[in-house]
Specification:
Blueprint (H helix, E strand, L loop, with lengths): L2 E13 L12 E17 L5 E7 L5 E8 L4 E5 L2 H17 L3 H4 L4 E8 L9 H13 L3 H6 L7 H6 L5 E4 L4 E4 L10 E5 L6 H9 L6 H16 L3 H19 L4 H5 L6 E4 L7 E5 L4 H10 L5 E3 H4 L9
Parallel strand pairs: 3-6
Antiparallel strand pairs: 1-2, 2-6, 2-7, 3-4, 4-5, 7-8, 9-11, 9-12, 10-11
């Protein structure tokens, strides 16, 4: 019995502008993170009818294990039924997009292992990195696979393969690499709120808005362009605040700063599904002062821009 493996990797993501409105055509600025997810597919030549799937968190703990029947893509036993059903759905959707997927790929494998490079709870793209890697393995269109499974705008798939910041816009999608390395990037930070949000629920809330949003979409696109081209930390903070007020007023949700950081001397912008995951922060106070402010609020995951975000192909750690 011979055995060999295939490996794929994908970047995590953060959406700096355009959350929710990107779904309806707003121009969005997104960045890939240095941390992502890898997948290892172990192949062997025996006639096993099943394969195992194990998923590992960044601390090495196994957060999912399951066994699947190859031809039927049926779950035999698992440690989390919801995850197992979702994986079966992804495998079936992949087969729909590439009918040879089972014979050319699945029938040859004995095991799949995924490993996260960031803690799963951070919300940097556990699902999107998986979709991107599965699409590459099966040679299918990642956006079609996303549409058949999780849904969403797809900006995270663009980040999965990107080496730098990008503009993202629907329909299309239109993906345009951009250079986003502001002189004041050492005054941009990301803080984890430890309030995990389900982005699908956030999208459902957005979809309940019945009013015409063409003005807001146009304003978000303007702010996205302004953010890319702004020259000073003060201007960056103004753009962040304007974006927050626009989304807050449309969704009728309080801004993160109003909720948690009303006395913070700087700007705080929600990222992704509002109320959870990371916020982007900027301030003209010293980095030590800013970090201490959040640590005192028991928010210990504090990342400098250069330590989290991929920048024009260069990883600066």
């Amino acid at each position: 019995m011979s055995m060999h493996s295939q490996h794929f990797s994908a970047n995590g993501k953060l959406l700096l502008t355009g959350e929710y409105f990107v779904l309806d055509g707003a121009l969005a600025l997104a960045v890939p993170t240095q941390l992502g997810q890898t997948i290892t597919i172990r192949e062997q030549t025996d006639e096993e009818k099943t394969f195992s799937w194990r998923s590992f968190d960044s601390d090495g703990s196994c957060w999912f294990e399951g066994h699947f029947l190859k031809n039927e893509l049926r779950v035999l036993h698992n440690t989390d039924t919801a995850v197992a059903d979702r994986l079966a759905q992804i495998l079936k959707a992949t087969t729909d997009l590439n009918p040879k997927f089972i014979t050319d790929h699945l029938n040859k494998i004995s095991a799949i292992e995924t490993k996260l490079e960031f803690p799963r709870r951070w919300g940097l793209g556990t699902s999107s990195t998986l979709i991107a890697m599965m699409a590459r393995w099966a040679a299918v269109n990642p956006y079609e696979l996303l549409s058949a499974t999780f849904g969403g705008s797809g900006y995270d798939l663009a980040c999965a393969d990107a080496d730098q910041a990008l503009f993202y816009q629907l329909p299309g999608p239109v993906v345009k690499p951009v250079s986003f390395a502001p002189d004041f990037s050492d005054q941009i930070y990301f803080v984890y709120l430890n309030q995990k949000q389900n982005s699908r629920e956030g999208i459902q809330q957005y979809r309940k808005i019945k009013t015409q949003l063409s003005r807001e979409i146009a304003e978000i696109s303007i702010l996205t362009n302004e953010m890319l081209n702004c020259q000073t930390q003060e201007e960056f903070a103004r753009i962040m605040n304007e974006h927050e007020q626009l989304v807050s007023g449309t969704l009728k949700i309080e801004c993160a700063k109003e909720l948690y950081f009303s006395n913070f001397p700087g700007a705080v912008k929600s990222l992704g599904a509002w109320g959870g995951d990371f916020v982007m922060v900027t301030s003209n106070r010293s980095v030590d002062w800013v970090e201490n402010y959040f640590v005192e609020k028991r928010m210990n995951v504090f990342k400098k821009y250069k330590n989290l975000i991929k920048q024009d192909g260069l990883e600066v750690v």
